[in-house]
Amino acid sequence: MSEDFRETLYTVDKQGHRRWVYPGLVKGWFFTRRQVVTTVLMAIYLVMPWLQIGGEQAIFLDLPHRRFVFFGSVFWATDTFYLVLIFGALALSLFFFTALFGRLWCGWACPETVFLEFLFRPIERWVEGDSAQRQRLDRAPWNAEKIRKKFLKYVLFAATAWILASTFLAYFIGAHVLLHMMSAAPWENPGPFLATLFLMGLMLFQFGWFREQFCTVICPYARFQSVLLDLNSLVIGYDSRRGEPRGKHRKGDHDGTKGDCIDCGLCVRVCPTGIDIRNGLQLECINCAACIDACNSVMVQIGKPQGLIRYASENELTGKAWRWLRPRPIIYGCILIAYLVFFAYRISTRPMWEVEVVRGAHDVPFTAMEGDKISNHLTIRISNKSRERLSFEFHVEEPTTVQAVIPVNPFPVDSEQLQNVPLFLNFDKQVLHAGRAPVRILVKSSDGSSSILSLSVLGPE
Ligand code: SF4
Ligand code: SF4
């Protein structure tokens, strides 16, 4: 077996030039299931911006107003903590599922694979033909037919990229707003128009030219693989004990000296990253299962059992026992469950309003008034995250000699609004110890909930 693959990328030749991959189409058990999964995922992506829950877009990343709507729940810029929790949950899930199922994500759900393999490549095949025809077309000199096919392909690519880019933008500016903008001239909304063009360009570059290079050269997940997988993780592998020594033979003429692999090369020709899975687990393998379908079809033709290439663990492929239950996924799984419980608790107990004191670095810390009176000028930031208008009443609990002066008390704040309110705390100098004194303010909301605001008032030492 040649060991070249360990030091070289199939898609780069010895001179460092790009070697174009022309994967053939192979239909089979896995292809059909991937088609169903990717169709559902694409439908979710395209439909979600049009789905309304409680009068608002189901998923809406409203950047100008710094709010994020997720199936009826509104998160604000001040909710960064929950965003960190979500990223943490995603990272832990990735560790857990990769340890168990390898790169299932790459082959079945990654947008790169979904859009490239099930949108852009079918268009390419429809216009330019199968793998051999595409190669011939690319090698042929420019003539009328080549220009017509390339032009048609890129027009269809651009139309597809435009739909995908517009949908992506709809998650940020709202589907109905986008529709309204589209009915106007581009120069009336230059920002969204340029953003759509930029995204379209990016998609054309990625799906029209860069393609598998993203998975093999840029995506960090492929590189993390080596530390996330172990010998019992599910991967797509070639059973060399059964397949070797490989060699040509036909149905029925198997003399027992050769393995089941007839060295037809079909598994290599259908691979979207151009690798030979018979060399073992490689960074470039995106677990798309095309080689399984290809090899199974060959096995059927030569009357051998399917599964020469299959989903299996490295241990199973080398004849050892496959252990599903092992320390790594158990530890990842326990951490993930504990984390999700904590996450669910925090989300379910998330306050619908928040009040905080803002003391600017340039604010005068205190003002001496007539007699022994001191005044502190503060700003209170009230964020009403609920869907109703609330009013907030402020009452100093301790020390009772501190008087709170606020323009309107209770102070009304509209739904989903953030408001800064000036607050003056007036008190006698005697309240202070070493120039400061702790104060507790009870904040009561009209929804019946309350909170305590703890702060310090300042004065001369
Ligand atoms: S080796 Fe097989 S599973 Fe891996 S990328 Fe190639 S065709 Fe897909
Ligand atoms: S498709 Fe199967 S039989 Fe053909 S080369 Fe690949 S592993 Fe061997």
Keywords:
461 residues; alpha+beta; Immunoglobulin-like; 5-stranded antiparallel β-sheet; 15 helices; 16 strands; 42% helix; elongated; binds iron/sulfur cluster
What coarse outline follows from CA principal-axis ratios?
Answer: elongated
Helix content: 40-55%
Name the CATH homologous superfamily of the domain at 353-458: Immunoglobulins
Distance between the termini: 83 Å
Q: Which hetero ligands occur in this complex?
A: iron/sulfur cluster
CATH uppermost class of the domain at 353-458: Mainly Beta
Short description:
The chain is of the alpha+beta class. 42% of the residues lie in helices and 20% in strands. The chain has a domain at 353-458: Immunoglobulin-like (Sandwich).
Protein architecture, described:
With 461 residues, this protein is an alpha+beta fold. Strands 8, 9, 10, 12 and 14 form a five-stranded antiparallel sheet that branches. A four-stranded antiparallel sheet has the order 13-11-15-16, with no helix packed on it. A hairpin with a 2-residue loop joins β1 and β2. α6 packs across α8. The chain is elongated, with a radius of gyration of 31 Å. The chain starts with 28 loop residues before the first helix and ends with a strand. The relative contact order is 0.10. The mean pLDDT is 90. Bound molecules: iron/sulfur cluster (2 copies). The site of one iron/sulfur cluster has 15 residues, from α12 and α13.
